[in-house]
Amino acid sequence: MTSSSKTTHNYNPTNTPAWKTLEQQAEKAQQQNISDFFDQNPQRSSQMSVQSGELFLDYSKNLVSDATWQALLDLAAQSLLEQHRAAMFSGEKINTTEGRAVLHGALRAEVGDQTVASAAAESDQRVSLVKQQLADVELVSEKIRGGQWFGSTGKAITDVINIGIGGSDLGPKLACSALQEFAHPDIKLHFISNVDGAEILTTLKKLNPETTLVALASKTFTTHETLLNAKTARNWFAETLGLENAQSSSHFVGLTANRANALAYGIPADQILEFAEWVGGRYSLWSSIGLSIAISIGFEKFTEMLAGAREMDLHFQQAPLTENMPVIMALLGIWYSNFLDAQSNAVIPYCERLLLLPSYLQQLDMESNGKSTTLDGESIDYQTGAILWGQTGTNGQHAFFQLLHQGTRMVPIDFVAAAVDNLSNEEHHRVLLGNMLAQASALMCGQEAPEGEPYRYYPGNKPSNVLLLDQLSPKNFGALIALYEHKVFVQGSIWNINSFDQWGVELGKKMANQLLASDSGVQAELDPSTTALFAHIKKCQE
Ligand code: F6P
Known about the structure:
Helices cover 45% and strands 11% of the residues. It is built from 19 helices and eleven strands. The chain has a six-stranded mixed β-sheet with strand order 1-2-11-10-8-9, sandwiched between helices. Strands 4-3-5-6-7 form a five-stranded parallel β-sheet, with helices on both faces. Bound molecules: 6-O-phosphono-beta-D-fructofuranose. 6-O-phosphono-beta-D-fructofuranose binds next to loops. 6-O-phosphono-beta-D-fructofuranose (F6P) binds next to loops.
């Protein structure tokens, strides 16, 4: 994987002794019942729970015996996880296919955090660079929040549209929704990502161009959808304000790791907020891509979010494997995916402000670990990333929980909630959390069917984690996201894959370009089904 860390050659998780033990444990698990584990060990819930800062994870309701748990911990110890983790935090180029370091941790680090002595000086320099870049975020966000950033007609900004997609959209959008308790009362944030014109055109109709700022968010500044949406926004400024080249006015800022492209696009140099190329798109909300978050909640609270993520970084690096929250969650995912044939993992927040958490995690997890080639370029013959999906509770209870309780598939669940919610009231919050606890318990305990009513049988033995935040503060939100980042990292490391590239998205992009070119008369080689569909759409449009 790296020059200084142990080579990955010959490492294959399925060849470790722990993997073999886990295969045997999986056979035993067919006969085991989670509830019985509690009868056998009254200390189970305290033994199988862990705290980091203000995050508390109860993982006792998993189909994991003591022997299985030991074998999972052994798997982590027998993998290259600890070397990979040190390599990531010390800035080695662990994203081998793109030749890049993976340093989103540096976005929330402090001087002196580096534990690998030989990397300390470089790491401290990086922290200084990040602080400079974040100072720009502070300057711009505080100006906007203070009514000191003016549009071309001299009016202060009231609406900010973040135009970006994937990592340049999902993180900021989730954070602004999750932390709405702290939102600026007079400045509204809007997020445009889809190339579906209906999204941007409907949004623009509601806005006053004189008081609107576009935050053009793109790591590469080449993404087709983002540039087309930006063009539509520019046309809107031209049509409504007579402002040609709005991208060069005070109505646009650029958030990017590609300064040259942003300059070439026409964004003024002092309106480009940069971040480093070693920040992956799906890990970029902590960088200038998070400008919209800072505008919404203020830079001070933005830094609290970073501090929460840093707390999780330190926990991940320092806690022993047995008490390491990301490691624990990752191992449980591997157990279900690789040994018990679970196809998916549901994340169900009992908090409406975390509605977007599952879609954010879909990119984080599935773009990172949806891989089938090892770090050594070999084909993989074991399962990697699971399908992640979810929806908020209690809404999900009235939609898909039927399948969770009585369906035929195993779906391990992460329930996520805040113990205290300042935006709710006592009655609502008691009912909300009561429902979550009841669901987790019902899924595990199940129930016999009354005589003659087999359809009322609840098999139970359905596993879940409960992840509790003391409250949904910026700090705890930061820790929550960093927890999942590291969970994904641990799984990728054990599976011996590169969690930091995304070659799988390239082919579709290329074919879309070919197909669109053929629309303008250029001959493209399309498969027969696509050719027929294309023709059908054209006919409908005539
Ligand atoms: O196509 C996938 C992807 O590269 C994501 O990884 C990324 O977050 C998204 O596109 C947007 O990329 P950019 O920020 O460069 O516009």
